[in-house]
Amino acid sequence: MSSRRSSAKPPFPEGDRARSWVDAAQVRFAAWLRRRGPVHPPLTLGYRQIYILPTRFGWLVGLLLFAMLLGSLNFNNNLGLFTTFLVAGIGLLSMHIAHRNLDGVRVAGCVPGQTFAGAPLELSITLRDTRDRARRGLVAESKRLSPAAGVDLAASASAETALSIPTRRRGWMEIPRIRLRTRHPLGWFEAWSWFWPEHKVLVWPRPADQAPPLLTSGSSDSRNRSGDESDEFHGLRDWREGDPLHRIAWKASQRHQHLLARQFTRPERDRIILRLTDAPGRSLEERISILARWVMEAERNEFEYGMELGATTIEPGSGEAHRIRCLDALGEFG
Amino acid sequence: MTGALSPTTVLLVVGAFLFAALPHLAAMPPWLALVIVLAAIWRATVEVLGLRRPNWLIRGFLTFGGLALVIAHYGTFWGRRAATVLLCVMIAAKLSEMFRLRDARVVAALGYFLIATQFLFSQQLVLFAYLVVGCALVTAALMRIQRDADSAPTPVTDSPPAAAGAASVVRDGFLLMLLAVPFALVLFTLFPRLASPLWGMPENALDGRTGLSDEMSPGNIASLFADDSPAFRVSFDGPPPPRSERYWRGPVLWRFDGRTWRRLFYSNRAPERTPRPGPGAFSYTVQLEPSERRWLFSLDYPVRAPEDARLTADFELISKTPVTTLMSYDVISQPDFQDSVDLLQTMRRFALLLPEGSNPRTRAHAEELRRRYPADDRALIDAVLAWFNREDFFYSLETAPLGRHGADEFLFDLRVGYCEYYASAFVVLMRAAGIPARIVTGYQGGFWQAADEYLLVRQSDAHAWAEVWLEGQGWTRVDPTAAVSPSRIRDGARSALSGSQGWLSGEWLYQLRNQYDRLQNLWNRWVLGFDARRQQNFLASLGLDTLPPGVKAALLVALAGLVLVPLALLLQASTNARRRRDRLDRAWHRLCGRLRRAGVRPLIGETALETARRSAERIDNGHELITLAGEYSMLKYGPFRSETAVSAFGRKTAGWRPIARNPSSFNQS
Lengths: 334, 669
Description:
The complex is a heterodimer of chains A (334) and B (669).
Chain A: H1 2-6, H2 17-35, E1 43-44, E2 51-54, H3 56-74, H4 78-102, E3 105-112, E4 121-129, E5 135-141, E6 151-153, E7 158-165, E8 171-174, E9 178-182, E10 189-195, E11 200-203, E12 232-238, H5 250-256, E13 260-265, E14 271-275, H6 284-300, E15 304-309, E16 312-317, H7 320-332
Helix pairs in contact in A: 3-4, 6-7
Chain B: H1 7-27, H2 30-49, H3 56-74, H4 80-95, H5 101-118, H6 126-150, H7 166-190, H8 222-225, E1 230-236, E2 247-253, E3 255-256, E4 261-262, E5 282-288, E6 295-296, E7 309-311, E8 317-319, E9 327-333, H9 345-352, H10 360-372, H11 377-390, E10 394-395, H12 406-414, E11 416-417, H13 419-432, E12 437-444, E13 447-449, E14 454-458, E15 462-470, E16 474-478, H14 480-484, H15 486-491, H16 493-496, H17 507-528, H18 532-541, H19 549-579, H20 583-597, H21 608-616, H22 622-637, H23 643-655, H24 663-668
């Protein structure tokens, strides 16, 4: 991937001038949005953050109403006119309700989960009502993403919605601008707010599907070592010079007519160091992918593992936190 | 959104559609209505029982089959009835392929349109209920669809939107509709109307429910007798004319082919002279129900034509366009007027013309009458009327059709008939006797609504009478039916036919209908009759008519705002009411407000007691505050809570004020 990046097109090729204009406009638009008020969660949506426009269906209904208005006016049909105005009134109210449905909603949190490249990233968004009224059909969505399922909020309650963002490659990822929208009650108007989660997410490399088995026995660090009393009792052996006195098993020594010492061992685990240079693969990404796989396997087999990644060295260890540390290092590397 | 529809939603959409289509279904041929209802029920069944969805073949068959049925019955897609029936059929076909939210939305939104189109046919008062309920149901269906849309992707969260039940959605739909009513009223009153239409009315709107025809052949008027619907209503500026003078003049017929009476082309010219309104003139306003004809009705003799109508030489009023909506016009009629003092030679010839070789017995009888009264036309006519009265002529709807020599058969054999028979035979007899005569059709009588002071003329009041031209008097009205059955003229067709008809089961029902018509009259006058002119008058009465259009538009917006702001406040208040419903909390909130003004802010997450303890350090009467906070906690969280205790607590807190410490000690703390 990195090799592909190096061969990428220059920033503004001739044909893409229009595109660059659009980009520039988008940057300016985003800046304008940010100037209007808080845009990072946690934030409470107020009138400066809420935008509202008719939906496509809303426009369609508008057209229908216009036809009804014209027909009724032409034939001087007063009940037809009344119907038209009644539906128009309903539409106006629905606009107000759509706005009210979003007004005062607090985006209390927007926490990304952890994921490997290629798998969707779950962005968990916590919404809370601050105005003591029930909300309906709040949908989080982002550009080019399928919208999350709508959530309802009871009065003064909070609820969580999850937006899944596809990831393609490892490394730091910006979470796109999130749009919280509602089309309640009739779907004629859509009220929405934009916000940017402040988090950047580190996407872990995708573990390779196939990798060479972990080199446990060949590892030079793998050796037995005697432990102390805190470890479990292992057996007896002949006393050697230098063994502390309190390790002498006096009763047993009496039976065997010579001194025996109690021996303790720590249950020995395989200690391995995962090195980038050990991983086979044509490109850096492939090798990192294999390392990721090794990390997962080592953790599953409860090995103690460390990592050497170029200049970065991670001391051997195990456990969830250690695994995350290793995967983070892999994600960031390069 | 590509979400799936839930069964509840489908049922609601189908229900809303059926309700919106109800009056249309009633007006279309029953087998077509059956097809539509079956298609809707089938769609609902598929959803409820989870049957397999109809495939494209069935859907195509339904669509094109429906098209074929409509074209087979109406022969066209044009015309209001055919077009709306087509719309119903197409929506029913659409139901069979309504599996996406989008389709459901289109079907539901077209429900509004269906409701509006119904008013092209009728704007009866009862249909207002249909409007209101229909709009609420369609709105509820749209709400339910939106609920489905919001839960469209497979729910992954713990709290997917609760699937709202049909009942609660319908209630919400009604609520939304009711809240929109004030807005609709403002727009209705102030939205500018068109004084003249942008395009013409399509024909055939009234499904053959037309009023009086412009020709008369036996059975024409009788077909109206069973029609109890109102033809028009009249309100008089002064006292109404006596019952015997209530002849509402319509088409005047001259040409007779032995069977059918028709108008004369020459009648279309303007009258040579018109009456001058003098003493005894009637001034009145007629509210004409739509008839699809151009006839306007007036008492003898209208002084001038109302707007958009003209007056013919026979003193008929003809509207420029067919009357397709409720229409109101003002007329002044002068009864004392001599129509055509001199009869033109051409007109006299037309007024004496009879088909060759017809009615020999009538002719013979006429010659005999002429021999008896050689010069006195008046005496001759009286003799004929007396003859009608004396001999056993009867007034009845149950009569036999007439053959080629209709007048002969009627006058000498049958002698049973109604106004058409009498008028026709009488005019033939007059012409045979050499007296110029013609037939006038229209309405006679009407029901006087004493309480609201208007005259209700029904279709069943349709009537035909004769006019003869007399030297020195001009055209003179003669009603042969009156000679036979005076009660027909005195009390209306109902009394003359009492007992012979089944369309009214009792007097009380008739009374009820008359009472209902009073409501309908108000409705017509204030709602349906609210046209450009009336709106102008209304605005003028408010002094708004002279404003420039821009100001009017601004006013409209401002008024709409005036309606919306209270609505918004109402919504807000309903929320607040829920928040502040608890009197106990309210009392405590008030107290906290006073503390805040005294400089102590209750913190979020702090209990009442904590707030009180913290505040107590900063005010002089802190111990009281702590007591109050304790009481509050006891009442709120304790097991015993009585309304009297809450009231007592409210009274205590109401009188309590924090006493600020003197500044020096305040600074120390």
